[in-house]
Design a protein that fits this description.
Layout lengths: L3 H18 L16 H11 L4 E7 L11 E5 L3 H17 L5 E6 L3 H4 L5 E8 L3 H7 L2 H22 L1
Parallel strand pairs: 1-4, 2-3
Antiparallel strand pairs: 2-4
Helix pairs in contact: 1-6, 3-6
């Protein structure tokens, strides 16, 4: 019953607000529940010369396997992308002991492969998972996820200045 669009935009807007409150210039690829293709997202990030690119998602298991739960953060290549992803993943694990750690992994997703800056793709849980879907439906949990993502980004930015 829970859909990715029900949680991801909420988390993303919260992350942006938190980062802005710390003086970070944030550009979102979308601020409303619209469908935006992948190439324009990458083109925007590359054209403004962003320092980092973070794509926030909620996962779904094929066949709607309700026993599959967990958070994971992906990077495409390079130490800086791995470092950004690791900081975010560590902060996500810090905010909730109920989250299953699926790790930081390398992947070739379009948005992290085609951006010219360090990039991370965050899967904040499985909307098809029994535990994750219950947690993701709670506003307080989504706020903790947003805080963790923002903190991970801030830790990365502080180290790269």
């Amino acid at each position: 019953g829970l859909k990715e669009t029900d949680v991801v935009l909420d988390i993303s807007l919260k992350v942006a607000e938190l980062l802005r409150s710390k003086g970070v210039k944030v550009v979102l690829t979308r601020t409303t529940d619209i469908d935006l293709d992948l190439p324009p997202r990458v083109q925007l990030a590359n054209s403004i010369g962003a320092d980092v690119f973070v794509s926030i998602h909620a996962n779904a298991a094929r066949g709607k396997k309700s026993d599959v739960n967990g958070i994971e953060t992906f990077y495409y290549t390079g130490y800086r992308g791995m470092q950004l992803s690791t900081y975010i993943q560590n902060e996500l694990l810090r905010v909730s002991s109920k989250l299953t750690d699926r790790g930081v992994r390398r992947a070739g997703f379009y948005v992290i492969r085609r951006t010219s800056m360090p990039a991370a793709l965050v899967e904040a849980g499985f909307v098809t998972g029994d535990l994750d879907s219950e947690m993701l439906s709670i506003e307080d949990h989504r706020s903790r996820i947003a805080i963790a993502i923002a903190d991970g980004i801030l830790i990365y930015l502080q180290g790269s200045i």
